[in-house]
Every structure is written in C-alpha cells, then in structure tokens.
TrEMBL record:
Key words of the record: FAD, Flavoprotein
Segments forming domain FAD/NAD(P)-binding: 3-298
KW Flavoprotein (keyword) present: yes
Protein name: FAD/NAD(P)-binding oxidoreductase
Any Pfam family the entry gives: Rubredoxin_C
C-alpha cells in the first residue's frame, strides 16, 4: 500500500481526496492522509460571496460532511501547521509530530495580496482594525459581523472576487464603493467596453466606483484617501486585490519555484515524489486563481497516485469565467482581448449599455476562441457550448450574439447530445457524466442530485440544465452517458 500525504484541505486538496477514493474506495491501494491548517471541513471558496450576501449559510458551502473522513478511510488532521518537509527522510513535520510519505502532494493554495497602502497593516504586519481580507470562511464571518445595513464599505479590487463581494455587501444594504487602480473592471477577463457596461449595471444595483486611481492611505474609522486626492468613507475595508501562490513550504523544501511551484504534465515538482496542484502550482497550461484547473488536475493526479491510469497527463484547462453576483449574468472565455479590426480573427461586438448588455465574439476558422457575454444568458449558454465542444459557429453570427441561434449539431440542445465530459455546473465543476452516475446510484430527483453532486447549489445558473438532464434521465433511463 502506498502512503500518500496531501498538505492542504482547501478545494484542490479536498477534490484530490475525493478523486483518490473514487478510484480506491476501500483504501486498498492508497493510505491517504490529509493535513489542513483551518479548523473546519473543506468548503467551496467560489461561493463565499453568497455567504457574504446571506443567500447561502456557511454549512451550505461545505464540501464534506463532518463524518466524511471516517466513511472514506481518510486520516484527516485539521488545525495543524505544517512547518517543514524533509525530502531526504520523506517526512512532513506537523507541529511536533512527523508524518511519513511515499508520495507527497502540495495543495497549499494561495494567500491574499494586500496592496502596499499605508495604514492597511498594523505595526506587526497584521491587517489593521477595520480591514478584512476576502479569502476564507472566517473572513466571511468577520465581514458579515461588521457589515450592517447602512455601513460604508470600501472594496479594494475590481476583479472577479472583489465585485462578487461588493454585490453581496450591497445586497445587505451596505454603502459600497469599489476602488480599483485600473481604468475598467475585471481587466484580466474583460475589454474596456465590457468593463464600462458592467460598471453601469452594478451602479444600478447601488455600488459606486472609483476607477483608475489607487488608494494612498487608510485611517481606521475614517476611510481611504485616494491618489487623486479624493476621500472614500469606510467603516470597513474589504481587500480583494488578488492572490499570490503559497510557496513557502515548497521553497523551504528546496523545490523549484517561480510564481508558483513548478510542475510538469504529470504534476510532478522538481522532486518526482512530490506533486503540486491548484493555486500553489505553476503549469504552462493553467490560468491561476480559478478552481476549474485544480479540479481537472485532481483527476489526473488521482489516476497516477492510485495506478488506475499511470500515463495520465494534464494538458491545461479551457476556462470559462462566470461572475456569481445576483442580477448580473456575465461569462468570459478564451482570448477576448482582440481588437475588432484584428487581421487574423473574426471579431463581432454588440453593445447596449442602457439595458446592461454587451457581447463580443472572437472566432478563428469558424471556432469560438474568445467571448464576453454580459446580460444575455441565452447567448452565453450557446457560445459556451460551442467553446467547450469545439463546434463550428452558426453562419448567422448576429443571431448567435443575440441568443437566437443554436450551435450547429447541438440538436436543439438535447441532454442526450451532450458528451459525458461536458461541464454542467461550473461552480462545482460537475459534468453530465457525474450527474448520470449519481442518478444510477439512486439520486433520482433534483434535490437528491444536488445533495449527491452539489450541482445547482452555487450561483443557480445551471439549474435549468440540471433539471433538463434529470427529466431526460427519468424519461429514458439510458444505459450509458
């Protein structure tokens, strides 16, 4: 039996443990130890904005039940700090104990990046009074405790997580101002036009913006001074300005590190007995800061660690980014930062700022290679399906942008035509095949499917698709996905 130790019990570590036990349910091949520094079971960080908004409870975002470890033959140790990896002796030091390993997996995730704004940190390097990072379940508890209706709140960061936090706080009745040093929102995923339409949409939901100027000073109880000389009142400052890979343990162990722990297609580090995945890992085909690559990496690594598929390799992830904010429907995918007059791509753009709609489509050789779709959920669903499946786009491009054209060969989007690998729920990365498997295991209703797979328990955007698959299964009870 092989002794595998996973350092980190976040989304990547928890998913890896699930994938290992899916391949080795009784623990005959792998003795699995998981070490987590937080005191509670793993949870879905993607849904933390829903906890801040009050639409989900902390228990609703848990990835594992309290008795999960015992049921699945996992030695789970919570609340302990891993201080050292001894690669010569092949042991991990956890507080005052040693944990031996045959194979070690680093799933240490990432840590919030705090801008070097004077006043955000106290004299000891900790966050100053009134400043909270937006990263963990404990952070959410602090934010909720201090964010009563009417409280002026500043959110530092206009990226994906910052906007989700801002929307959740505005839904609680807080007076929210987003401070972002770049001239438009979500600059990693959106072009300037989409960023402007998104800002206008969120302003209609009660969020104010200060764009293109960083904060220059924070004073507890007063708020933020900005570089342009203006002032933002804030009893609470929520920091969501990006993350950095947590590589301290890997560096201590002498592993090769750049922006993250360097891994190859087998997810091996510079020491072949040590692997890494998720936010802490750096792979050429990975977009950092998103969960979908981590969960695809977990499947590959579980194949290799259990010996089910020793030749399994991770080849990168095609990522679709969705903004999980109530009353806002936004999807961004691929390379959307292509100019309309690009000579090597077909680029179409539709703008309707007054109605909160923006759609941009980038095609090469009739295939979607990038898109931004805001305020047009039907168009987003069709374009994402084209992108995921590599299907040719309909010849009527305008109809596609307006959500009036189905992907060619999609046969009216019947669930039967979706491949088993098609991702249905992106919040929890649940595929059609997993839904079929859960159905055959006895989860024959929408609520049972949700309990078994967590599909539809996130932003809710996949609920209709999940219902369609449940109805299809009930009608046909197919023998194969």
């Amino acid at each position: 039996m092989r002794n595998v130790v996973v350092v980190g019990y976040g989304m990547a570590g928890a998913r890896l443990a699930d994938e290992v036990r899916r391949r080795d349910p009784g623990g005959e091949r792998v003795a699995l130890t998981v070490l987590g520094d937080e005191p509670h079971p793993a949870y879905n960080r993607v849904l933390l904005s829903s906890v801040v908004a009050g639409s989900l409870t902390p228990d609703a975002v848990r990835l594992h039940a309290p008795d999960w470890a015992a049921k699945h033959h996992v030695d789970l140790r919570l609340g302990g700090a891993v201080t050292k990896v001894d690669r010569t002796r092949r042991v991990v030091h956890v507080d005052d104990t040693e944990v031996p390993y045959d194979a070690l997996v680093l799933a240490t995730g990432s840590r919030p990046w705090v801008p070097p704004t004077p006043g955000l940190l106290d004299g000891n390097g900790a966050l100053a009074p009134g400043v909270v990072a937006f990263r963990s379940l404990d952070d959410c508890a602090r934010i909720v405790a201090e964010a009563s209706p009417g409280t002026p709140v500043a959110v530092l960061g206009g990226g994906l997580l910052g906007l989700e936090a801002a929307r959740g706080l505005a839904g609680r009745g807080c007076l929210v101002t987003v401070v972002h040093p770049v001239g438009h929102l979500m600059e990693r995923q959106l072009d300037a036009g989409a960023g402007r339409v998104l800002a206008r949409t969120l302003q209609g939901l009660g969020i104010e913006f200060r764009l293109g100027t960083p904060a220059s000073r924070y004073a507890p109880g007063e708020g933020l001074e900005l570089a342009d000389g203006t002032h933002v009142p804030a009893d609470l400052v929520v920091v969501s300005a990006g993350v950095r890979a947590e590589t301290a343990l890997a560096e201590q162990a002498g592993l090769d590190v750049d922006r993250g722990v360097l891994v190859d297609d087998a997810l091996r580090t510079s020491d072949p007995r040590v692997h890494a995945l998720g936010d802490c890992a750096q792979h050429v085909g990975t977009v950092s800061g998103l969960v979908q690559p981590a969960w695809e990496q977990a499947a590959v690594l579980a194949d290799r660690l259990t010996g089910v598929a020793p030749a399994a390799r991770y080849a990168g992830t095609t990522v679709v980014t969705r903004l999980k904010a109530r009353d806002v429907d936004l999807a961004a995918l691929g390379d959307a930062h292509v100019e309309v007059d690009s000579p090597d791509a077909e680029v179409l753009c539709f703008q309707d700022p007054a109605r909160g709609r923006y759609a941009k489509l980038v095609l090469r050789d009739d295939r979607v290679t990038g898109a931004i779709v805001l305020g047009a959920p039907d168009a987003a669903a069709a374009i994402v399906q084209l992108y995921d499946r590599g299907l040719p786009a309909p010849t009527d491009r305008l109809a596609l942008l307006l959500g009036r054209a189905l992907p060619a060969g999609a046969a009216e989007a019947s669930p039967a035509d979706l491949p088993a690998s098609a991702v249905v729920c992106r919040c929890n990365t649940v595929s059609k095949g997993q839904l079929v498997t859960a159905w055959r295991a006895g989860a024959t209703s929408l609520s049972a499917i949700a309990d078994a797979t967590r599909a539809s328990t996130g932003c809710g955007g996949c609920r209709d698709a999940v219902c369609g698959i449940v109805d299809w299964l009930a009608a046909s009870q197919p023998q194969s996905a």
